[in-house]
Each structure stands twice: as structure tokens, then as C-alpha cells.
Request: fold
Amino acid sequence: MTEGDRLQHPDDLPGTQLIRRIGLLLRVLTQKNRTGARLIDLCRETMLEKPTIHRILHGLIAEGLVTQDHRSRRYHLGQSVYEMGLAAAPRLQLRDVCHPLLKLLAEDTGDTAYLCAREGFDGVCVDRQDGGFPINAFALEPGHRRPLSAGCGNLAILSALPDDQVRRICEVNRPRVLARYPHLTDDELRARIARTRRDGFAHVNALETPGKTSVGICIRDADEVPIAALSVSAVIDRLQGQRLTAAVALLRSAARECERRIRLTALPRSRERPPSNAPRQARSAR
Reply:
């Protein structure tokens, strides 16, 4: 291999375009997996031509990576993707660690609770639990990916990072953010980060759905690195005044307990101690 071959940009390598298109399709299907995606949805989200998408889908179905409901004609992720996901699961099972606390959070607030995790320049919804309030906030599906500079949980993570990382992430994400959320300008994003750092929690209205709002708290790993966030979403009237204060307290308690469990998971077995029963706060946010 020559020096030129080693320095060749990945986008110039044969077959790379097809791989990028397959990855793009699978990510869109991940976001829409619960309801499924129509061919027209995939065309709109990926901006690829219909014949191109149809050919790729045909190959993915043959490999078990995608399935199609023959009644609705909608596409879903296939069983093989689930099997790959099990094999690729990280040593720290963040969802397993946080799921019981996320469930309690939804029960205690009565609203929709989310767990999102940082993945590079993005935040990915890892888990969601619906509360008992009859009007749920917008439904962010597990697997849904957004730029780390968009969304409440993502904002909580971003604001906890050092300034140099924040600048780099915002710079890389700027084209995607402005294309999807034109009102989320650089000045507005800086103001949101400053407010989140001042308050110790993120509190912003939903980008996708008018009339909804969210509040979120960052989760750090055993090395104090921001890796995830818990958030609660509701109609605006339900996250104001005393209910907002109560929701923030519940989120803080749940986030700190998540961090405690993450630290125990990261400890060598010889140093582990039996976990103490964390006090559960009163259900004052209902």
C-alpha cells in the first residue's frame, strides 16, 4: 500500500457511497420503527431517489435487516438488526441501569420520561416511559437521533461539557440544526447553554411540537464525563411553578441514583458494596 492509498479519504473509496446510503436508510428506519416507514417517507427523509431506495431495501430484506408489512406496505427493522444490537451492546448497559428509575420518574410525574445518551456529535433516545397523565407530550421513539445541540436532554449533556467541546459540537452540527430548526440560531443556542449552566438543568419548549415543554438533567459516568440525560416532557401548563420545581427535584434524585449505580457497575467486583436503598421522593409532582 502506498502513502497515497493510506491517506485516501474514506468518501473516495469504492463502495463508500452505497454504505453511507444503507446507513442512512437504517437510521431513518430506526427512528420510525414503531409505526414503520412508507417508501415515500424514506424518500423524503433521505432525499434519495425511489428506485435507489427500492433496490437497497430489496437487498436489506434478503439479508434479514429489514422487513415489510405486507398489509400496510410499511418497512421496519428486521430480526438480524436486533441480534446485531445484542452482540454490540456496550459493557455498561445504560438502559438496564437507568430503566427502573426512568419508570419511577414517569410514575411520579405522570408525564413522559426519556433517557438519551451521547453518541459523538448526536444524542440518541435510549428509553422512554409514559406517565399516567392522559395528554402525553410528543413521542420521541427509542433510537431517534438528533444533533446534540437540539432537544432538552441533549442540551443538558451539551451544557455540561467543556467549552472547547461545546464549540466544536455546535460548529459541526450547525448546518443540520439550521436546516431542521431555523429559529435555533447560534445566539439562541448560546443563551440556552448559559441558562442551563446557571440553573443546573435544561428547560426548553419542544422543537417539534408547539405547546409542549421539557426539563432535563445530565448524567455523568464514573469519571465525571457527561454521557446521558434524563428528561420529562409535558404540556407547558404542567411544567410551571411548583410542578416544575418538583419535577426538577425528582429528576435530580433519579440522575444521582443513576450515577451511583453506574459507579457500582464500573467498580471491580472486589470493591463493590451492596447498594443501599435510595430514598424515593414523595410523588409531589402529580
Summary: The longest helix spans residues 241-266. The domain at 90-271 is CATH 3.30.450.40 (Beta-Lactamase). The chain has two domains: 3-86, 90-271.
